[in-house]
Amino acid sequence: VVDALGCPLDTDGDGVIDINDECPGTPAGAAVDSKGCELVVGDTIVSLTGVNFETNSAVLTAHAKSKLDTAINRLADATGVVNVSVEGHTDSRGAAAYNQTLSLHRAEAAIHYLVNHGGIDASKLMAVGMGEGSPVASNDTSEGRAMNRRVDFVVSQ
Predict the structure, then answer these.
(1) DSSP states of the chain as a string?
(2) 63 Cβ contact list (under 8 Å, min separation 6)
(3) What digits encode the pLDDT tens for the residues 104-133?
(4) Least enclosed by CB within 10 Å: which of 20, 79, 104, 110?
């Protein structure tokens, strides 16, 4: 079904055409994902593990840049999202205060890449340093520490 101009319909006005909309009836103007399902404050749009940096710095590695390219596509798919917190995380090695600052610098480096290489609107991104306080795995193993060194993209107010 198409409109008078031959364009596919988007009955609920969420930016996702009806044929691809898995959540029809979302409120107009609501932030939705690429499937048309509403995102709420606190929803993680993208969680990237392995966004690694040069040792003891906030310089992105080539591998990290390729992971951020994935984030660019997912952020572009999240129609209607007004603001995104880019949360940098670290493992527990090093002093907590140092990790807090380092995680903020890493979040800022990710934003810089998203803006300058992906065309993402900087006014919609906010860097947040989470330090070592929100691990997703044990810091007792190298595998766990690697999982904790990540960048999350979370819908914010």
Answers:
(1) -B-TTSPBP-TT-SSS-GGG-SSTTPPTT--B-TTSPBP-TT-EEEEEET--BSTTS-PBPHHHHHHHHHHHHHHHHSTT--EEEEEE---S-S-HHHHHHHHHHHHHHHHHHHHHHH---GGGEEEEE-TTSS-SS-TTSHHHHHHHSEEEEEEE-
(2) 50, 52
(3) 999 999 999 999 998 888 988 999 999 999
(4) 20
- Looking up tokens 């819908």 gives 155
- pTM across the whole model: 0.69
Token pair recorded at residue 143: 């595998």
